[in-house]
């Protein structure tokens, strides 16, 4: 009798809803869930009427077609090689379908959400404001407040959320929901000079380059030309976050002291988003921003450099900034040919859905002809920064297969910098372009560190460059810095100068990745099959997690990748392709 009475009440309630014109609640399925990361603790439930801003990422119309296009335009020998997509062409793949937009909008409207904004380069994000109570009901979630242990990050997150079963095909993820991204740090430390030992190398440089690395050292070590670039259409982009602002006065001092052969008035242009800016006073100087602009303007001689200053007027801080800078670049008619970023996260701070969303934005940029380079991180095998761990911590976005990850070396003889982050992704599988090189390394490695990493994951870094005792000017002072933050703009400058010569020769600039398929006889895009195009680094390791990390070995290794740039060999391979 009790069960029958309950059913009667239930059916009565449904009938009342239908009579009132309110649709019945849709069947829900869990879309994403995770455990609370060890570096966060719960700070309790927020008030039910606390406002929360959320965004829904809609699926692309033809994501698989977009990836295939990337490989087609990136692989020499392909009928589509070099035929980068325009914004409108990329949109046909990356934009959500009308059906997806309509279906998700209808569901939100059913639940009283009508003030919906559209964002993203292709309208792939639907944003709205609601309350904690409504968000919990809408997504079968339990939004709580969380605080980083011994850190500054405070987040409102849920450990799981659900979506209507009939809408899962239309939705990639809800954001911010299950990501626990910590605030990224302010970059490398600025300090006085120090000394190291000198040894020999194929392309050598003065012994002073063991103590202080300058643009001249890099030109000597890597054969980087001093002659100015000539092609104004070939631009180099620099990512800027967390109020790190480059100073034109510091750049001028840098050029006067270290590149007196070019005008000290040479500078960068500025693009701002999310409330970004670039105030010009000594106290506003950012070490990372000064480093990145000085080693692009000062090494990629004559290449136009644009600094993307990302402010904090976004929904969720650092991760949203990464998404927004790619939305900006992907929406440009003439995006930069190459972009360097010296920031990142630990992979385990994100969910696979968020990581895929951002990784696909880099893939889209590749179809537009943009090469994406990232510093691999400074924690060895313990992640973006050195910290306690028992298994190796991959970094992100380095684990994304659609970009080039850059590790660090030191000294004239070039050995691996001990902080150079490298390893294997737990999210992304190993792409075909690197399987042979990685298999060789793993065979040589044997059982060392067995069980501490995923050997079938996307391996990184791909390449490396100098990252210790790099001289910069900061806030009017002269000093040095360390980090893969140094290596990424240096390697990016090499790519930009090669792009310049390709464009001048009437060829296409290098697109997305210097590490594409190895099933082609052409070089450069087959660097994993042509390690002679770089200087192989075979000494050093990257300790962490109470281990010595990975050792550098002949060929590719998860400390220095394939090695450091040999400009003449890279250019010859690019021209041959």
UniProtKB/TrEMBL annotation:
Ca(2+) binds at residues 536-537, 555, 557. The keyword Nucleotide-binding does not apply. The active site is at 288 (charge relay system), 292 (charge relay system), 485 (charge relay system). GO terms for molecular function: metal ion binding; serine-type endopeptidase activity; tripeptidyl-peptidase activity. SMART domains: Pro-kuma_activ (SM00944). It catalyses: Release of an N-terminal tripeptide from a polypeptide. Transmembrane segments: none annotated. It holds the Pfam family Peptidase_S8. Keywords: Calcium, Hydrolase, Metal-binding, Protease, Serine protease, Signal, Zymogen. The keyword Signal applies. Its EC number is 3.4.14.10. Its main location: secreted. Its cofactor is Ca(2+). Binds 1 Ca(2+) ion per subunit. Residues 212-577 form the Peptidase S53 domain. It is an enzyme of class 3 (hydrolase). Residues 1-19 form the signal peptide. GO terms for cellular component: extracellular region. GO terms for biological process: proteolysis. It is found in: Secreted, Extracellular space. Secreted tripeptidyl-peptidase which degrades proteins at acidic pHs and is involved in virulence. This is tripeptidyl-peptidase II.
